[in-house]
């Protein structure tokens, strides 16, 4: 059915029947509007123009006030900027400079950048670095400055009509503002490390004085009276006077150079491996068709190492000479296990570099990107300065003197460039498989015809005992963590400096959690005291295991180790495929610690020999260059300046499995 109407034939009278509002008819409204009320709905031109002009003028005044405020703020910021640029920091000593920079940073965190650097520095020195007085002075002055122009621009509001009963007004005093130092970050019970002396680069590292730290921290951590006044040197003479000197020796070199076989045969010849055990290794290696590995299995004990025929982790054993007890550390030679090698090298006092004299094998390990070069550089970067070079497998070339001389000449020039002195390096020909020239004078006529030097055991015997930093504050690097048989966790590591005794209180890691030593063991024997240079296991009960990681440092509560995320280092760059630029990501190796880091600043290129600045703020660092750089880690780490603790002031930088730089820490933030 159609819904459209036929308009032409429509009867409008019928269509609109019942409607009262037909056009032309008179209608009475139910609600009438009076003429007076109707005027409010009528537009008055004069009144409208007056209200519009008032609205425009009011908005204009508001905009002018806002513009004036913005101009004043811009002028204040511009003035502060000009003052900061033209202002020169006063020349102060290190302690005063650190106090000043700390005050400047705290004031900046409260007032921002509106106050000039000159004003902050002058006020800080005026009130002798008292934060409360400094903030009161600066904030009161800023409040007065901002209040005056605001009063001038504000129009007085119309006075309110008060009741007749009110005779006077009572002024209410303004609320008292309490200025407190803001709380930032997380709080740890440790001495406050001063920040940078340079305000324009507040993250720039600054030298930290150990004496200043010790004075401020002595009141934070309580130790026993016996621990506080202990004479480490007298205690060492009492405990170790009748014992042989103890050194750690790491065996390094390219993969398949024969390191494990050499050390296994040396252990067997010195009586540290029984005949029964060697017979067992011989029979098992014969079954697998690997009879030449029988001595290597003395140190390579795991099934995977024996199946693959390579060392994967650092193996430990002990030999005893006439005057020394030597802990042998057999390091892996494959490039995939260099982090394990570095972990072992951090424990070493001296090193043996094993090279393969076979034609082509020495060249592949030394010249074609092998590990001979890298291992030597790594141990030197970790502080090892005595090196014994063992030219192994010389029997494969008929004990050739020409081959021996050729290898010695190549290695001498390289090791000198790596930082080894000629007097601290020795060269010994031998054969790890046959045992020639290991523990007794050479018997092979082809060798004795031109070589009359010491055998390998004499070389180890002639190593000098490094000077132990026993009188320094305690520093122990953690290399392993495991659950002990009793209560608490056991932490294994090397005592780098100082002395540690039973019931001593220590600080653990970057969190500086305090713990007490329950037991000490060294070589599985309980000890009452351990000293610098010892590899020990410490049991710390009631310790949160989440606060302990491999690579952290255990320190003395009276002189805690600095904790930081940013520091400056003097580095030497090795062969790099891509130049080092600002923002370059690296893996930072510090003792047993492996931590991601970023090269956040290239401070200067310096001369290798003299240390003079060649160029400030270089754009990149290429091969064989020396520079000052700043490194930043993603989380806080424990680290020391090289000038304070040589043992903990060395770092290495690695990228994609290759060591690209090594250096020393010069400043700590």
Describe the structure.
- The chain is α+β, with helices and mostly antiparallel strands and 669 residues long.
- Among the domains are: 245-462, P-loop containing nucleotide triphosphate hydrolases (Rossmann fold), CATH 3.40.50.300; 475-555, Elongation Factor Tu (Ef-tu), domain 3 (Beta Barrel), CATH 2.40.30; 563-668, Translation factors (Elongation Factor Tu (Ef-tu), domain 3).
- The chain has 18 helices and 23 strands.
- Mean pLDDT is 75; it is low at 16-31, 148-202 and 209-219.
Quick description:
The protein has 669 residues and is an alpha+beta fold. Among the domains are: 245-462, Rossmann fold; 475-555, Elongation Factor Tu (Ef-tu), domain 3 (Beta Barrel), CATH 2.40.30.10; 563-668, Translation factors (Elongation Factor Tu (Ef-tu), domain 3).
Number of strands: 23
Reported for the largest beta sheet, the result is: 8 strands, antiparallel
Discrete helix count:
18
- The CATH topology of the domain at 245-462 is Rossmann fold
What is the CA-atom radius of gyration, in angstroms?
40 Å
Estimate what percentage of residues fall within beta strands. 15-25%
Low-confidence stretches: 16-31, 148-202, 209-219
Structural class: alpha+beta
Named CATH architecture of the domain at 245-462: 3-Layer(aba) Sandwich
CATH superfamily caption of the domain at 245-462: P-loop containing nucleotide triphosphate hydrolases
Mean pLDDT: 75
**Could you give the order of strands across the largest sheet?**
11-10-16-7-8-15-12-13
| Shape label | globular
What's the end-to-end separation, in Å?
91 Å
What is the share of helical residues?
Answer: 25-40%
Protein name: Tr-type G domain-containing protein
Subcellular location: Cytoplasm
Biased composition (Basic and acidic residues): 76-85
GO biological process, one term: translation
């Amino acid at each position: 059915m159609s819904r459209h109407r036929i308009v032409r034939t429509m009867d409008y009278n019928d269509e609109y029947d019942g409607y009262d509002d037909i056009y032309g008819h008179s209608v009475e409204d139910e609600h009438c509007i009076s003429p007076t009320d109707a005027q409010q709905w009528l537009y008055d031109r004069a009144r409208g123009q007056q209200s519009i002009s008032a609205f425009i003028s009011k908005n204009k005044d508001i905009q002018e006030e806002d513009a004036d405020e913005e101009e004043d703020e811009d002028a204040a910021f511009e003035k502060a900027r000009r003052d900061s640029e033209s202002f020169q920091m006063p020349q102060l000593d290190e302690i005063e400079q650190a106090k000043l920079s700390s005050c400047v940073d705290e004031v900046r965190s409260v007032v921002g950048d509106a106050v000039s650097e000159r004003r902050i520095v002058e006020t800080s020195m005026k009130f002798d670095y008292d934060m409360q007085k400094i903030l009161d002075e600066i904030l009161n002055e800023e409040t007065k400055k901002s209040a005056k122009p605001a009063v001038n621009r504000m129009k007085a509001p119309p006075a309110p009509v008060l009741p007749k009963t009110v005779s006077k007004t009572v002024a209410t005093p303004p609320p008292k503002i309490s200025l407190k130092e803001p709380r930032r970050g997380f709080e740890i019970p440790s001495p406050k490390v001063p920040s940078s002396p340079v305000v324009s680069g507040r993250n720039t590292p600054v030298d930290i004085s150990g004496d200043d730290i010790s004075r401020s921290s002595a009141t934070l951590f309580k130790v026993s009276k016996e621990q506080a006044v202990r004479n480490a040197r007298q205690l060492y003479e009492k405990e170790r006077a009748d014992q042989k000197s103890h050194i750690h020796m790491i065996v390094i070199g390219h993969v398949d150079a024969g390191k494990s076989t050499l050390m296994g045969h040396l252990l067997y010849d010195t009586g540290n491996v029984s005949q029964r055990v060697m017979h067992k290794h011989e029979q098992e290696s014969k079954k697998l068709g690997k009879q030449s590995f029988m001595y290597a299995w003395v140190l390579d004990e795991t099934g995977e190492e024996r199946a693959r025929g390579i060392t994967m982790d650092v193996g430990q054993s002990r030999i005893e000479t006439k005057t020394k007890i030597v802990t042998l550390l057999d390091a892996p030679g494959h490039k995939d296990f260099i982090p394990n090698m570095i972990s072992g090298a951090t424990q070493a006092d001296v090193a043996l570099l094993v090279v393969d004299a076979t034609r082509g094998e020495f060249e592949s390990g030394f010249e074609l990107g092998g590990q001979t070069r890298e291992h030597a550089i790594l141990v030197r970067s970790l502080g090892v300065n005595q090196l014994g070079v063992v030219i192994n497998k010389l029997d494969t070339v008929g004990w050739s003197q020409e081959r021996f001389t050729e290898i010695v000449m190549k290695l001498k020039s390289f090791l000198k460039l790596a930082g080894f002195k000629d007097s601290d390096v020795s060269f010994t020909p031998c054969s790890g498989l046959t045992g020639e020239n290991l523990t007794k004078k050479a018997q092979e006529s082809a060798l004795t015809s031109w070589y009359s030097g010491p055998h390998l055991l004499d070389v180890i015997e002639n190593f000098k005992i490094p000077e132990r930093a026993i009188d320094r504050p305690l520093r122990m690097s953690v290399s392993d963590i495991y659950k002990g048989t009793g209560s608490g966790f056991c932490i294994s590591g090397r005592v780098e400096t100082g002395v540690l005794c039973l019931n001593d209180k220590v600080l653990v890691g970057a969190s500086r959690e305090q713990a007490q030593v329950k037991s000490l063991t060294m070589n599985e024997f309980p000890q009452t005291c351990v000293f610098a240079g010892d590899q020990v296991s410490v049991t710390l009960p009631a310790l949160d295991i989440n606060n302990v990681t491999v690579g952290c440092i255990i320190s003395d509560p009276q002189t805690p180790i600095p904790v930081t995320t940013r520091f400056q280092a003097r580095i030497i760059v090795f062969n790099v495929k891509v130049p080092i630029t600002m923002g370059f990501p690296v893996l930072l190796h510090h003792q047993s610690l492996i931590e991601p880091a970023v090269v956040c600043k290239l401070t200067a290129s310096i001369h290798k020999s003299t240390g003079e600045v060649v160029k400030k703020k270089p754009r990149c660092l290429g091969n064989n260059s020396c520079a000052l750089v700043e490194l930043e880690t993603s989380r806080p780490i424990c680290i020391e300046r090289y000038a304070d603790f040589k043992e903990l002031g060395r770092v290495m930088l690695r990228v994609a499995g290759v060591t690209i730089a090594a250096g020393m820490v010069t400043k700590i933030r």
